[in-house]
Automatic annotation (TrEMBL):
GO terms for biological process: cellular response to amino acid starvation; negative regulation of TORC1 signaling; positive regulation of autophagy. Pfam families: IML1, IML1_N. InterPro entries: IML1 (IPR027244), IML1_double_psi_beta_barrel (IPR055213), IML1_N (IPR048255). It comes from Tetraodon nigroviridis (Spotted green pufferfish). This is DEP domain containing 5, GATOR1 subcomplex subunit. GO terms for molecular function: GTPase activator activity. One of its GO terms (cellular component) is GATOR1 complex. Residues 9-60 form the IML1 N-terminal double psi beta-barrel domain. Residues 71-352 form the Vacuolar membrane-associated protein Iml1 N-terminal domain. PANTHER family: DEP DOMAIN CONTAINING PROTEIN 5, GATOR COMPLEX PROTEIN DEPDC5.
Length: 447
């Protein structure tokens, strides 16, 4: 570096450290620069653990070798449109970035949170035209829907009540994550469910309730309920909200007319599959559609989170599904579906569409749909992590299951799986087994 005209990219690191080296873009060198001395900003030096008055290794780097695949920027308490995001991305091209770097452009303030290169997280890199820039807002409008179907009062195979798994587990972890990331989302929490009534005609209902009673494709009368727990709230501590949700859980059967009364027919809580899932998320779309009216300039982003005790299978109306998909894609709204149930052995989320054609030419494949536009995940509680990783997925019927159970409990090699983890699997002659099972019966002695 004896020439002051050097321009390019260099990396700096201590020779004995295994920490990621610092990548710098050199545009020009000062004439009065001291010999064999490098000056780096103090905040940058602390981020990369560079110590003063210590030897470092300096290498010239080809920018193609350190070009980032993805850059994630986070921002808070400001509104950034798509045009501003595009301009900010163009401003970052042909520059170096590092984690926790502060970025400012045209009044926009953001911070680099994650950098990805060849499928791995890195601490610094080069941003090119091909680098994808992702913007994440920590002050968005979030709608949280909790489906209070009949499975909420059931226990899973680990002994956890689905409601406790949703509130004490997922919501508690979510709010703790928000506090860790210093988020200030504007949150609305809604409990929703569907109640089926044991009625044959609409005349069995009081006149004041007939306007909210609907009839499905099977002729069953039902009513949808939505209970707003919190609306457009920002809190530093969300523990009090969890207490409010638990209190509503106790009296929820009374709120949705599951208790027997003289004026209203007997009501039954629906399962998660028969619930009003699409109807609930369309309620949030009614608000998101008008996001440009009376715009709030201290938040960016809108999303819906649905917590269900089911496994991601829903019986929905075909036309409503098409409308929901169109509204979601047109407005760029994200929807997350979080399931408390056990993951099934088939693809989910799965929509079972109402079959409106009863003719012979009805195609079974047209009655099901896999919505790719829904982000789907299963929540794993802490008790699941502490239990055994083996989960039975097939139930053996009859006396055969008892014989297998006796074999498993009496076989000494199967009673201590930890001792045989490193051993090879037992070799089974499957051809001989099939020949034994499917062999033809021999001649009877009574013939």
């Amino acid at each position: 570096f004896s020439s002051s005209r050097f321009e390019g990219f260099i990396e700096i690191a201590h020779p004995t450290d295994e920490y990621s080296p610092l990548l710098l873009q050199v545009k020009n060198l000062k004439e009065d620069l001291q010999k064999e001395t490098i000056s780096v900003d103090q905040t940058v030096a602390q981020a990369f653990k560079l110590r003063a008055y210590q030897d470092v290794i300096v290498n010239i780097i080809n920018p193609k070798d350190v070009t980032l695949d993805l850059v994630e920027l986070t921002f808070k308490d400001q509104y950034i449109g798509r045009g501003d995001m595009w301009r900010l991305k163009k401003c970052l091209v042909s520059t170096c970035a590092y984690v926790t770097q502060k970025v400012e452009f045209a009044g926009i303030r953001a911070q680099t949170s994650e950098l990805w290169l060849k499928g791995e997280k890195v601490t610094c890199g080069y941003i090119s035209e091909d680098t994808r820039v992702v913007f994440r807002s920590t002050s968005a409008m979030v709608y949280i829907f909790i489906q209070m179907s009949s499975e909420m009062w059931d226990f899973d195979i680990y002994g956890d009540l689905h409601f406790e798994k949703a509130v004490n587990g997922f919501l508690s972890d979510l709010f703790a994550k928000w506090k860790e990331k210093n988020c200030s989302h504007e949150v609305t929490v809604v409990l929703f469910s569907r109640t089926f009534y044991n009625a044959k005609t609409i005349d069995e209902f009081p006149e004041l309730l007939r306007g909210s009673i609907r009839q499905n494709q099977e002729g069953r009368f039902f009513e949808d309920f939505y209970r707003v727990v919190a609306q457009n709230e920002r809190r530093d501590e969300w523990t009090s909200l969890l207490v409010t949700i638990k209190k509503l859980f106790v009296k929820y059967p009374l709120l949705v007319r599951l208790e027997e009364t003289d004026a209203v027919p007997i009501g039954y809580n629906s399962t998660a599959a028969q619930g009003n899932y699409l109807e609930a998320i369309n309620l949030s779309f009614n608000v998101f559609d008008k996001h440009y009216i009376n715009r709030n300039f201290d938040r960016t982003g809108q999303m819906s989170v649905v917590i269900t005790p089911g496994v991601g299978v829903f019986e929905v109306d075909r036309q409503l599904m098409i409308l929901t998909k169109q509204r979601m894609i047109d407005n760029g709204i994200g929807v997350d579906l979080v399931c408390m149930g056990e993951q099934p052995l088939h693809s989910v989320p799965l929509f079972k569409l109402h079959n409106r054609t009863t003719g012979v030419d009805c195609h079974v494949g047209d009655d099901y749909h896999l919505p790719h536009w829904i982000n789907h995940s299963f929540y794993t509680s802490k008790s699941q992590n502490s239990c055994s990783s083996f989960t039975p997925r097939i139930t053996v019927a009859g006396n055969q299951g008892a014989r297998i159970l006796v074999h498993f409990t009496t076989h000494p090699a199967l009673c201590s799986p930890k001792d045989t983890e490193s051993s090879l699997p037992i070799q089974v002659d499957y051809d001989a087994h099939d020949a034994q099972v499917f062999r033809l019966p021999g001649p009877s002695r009574f013939q």
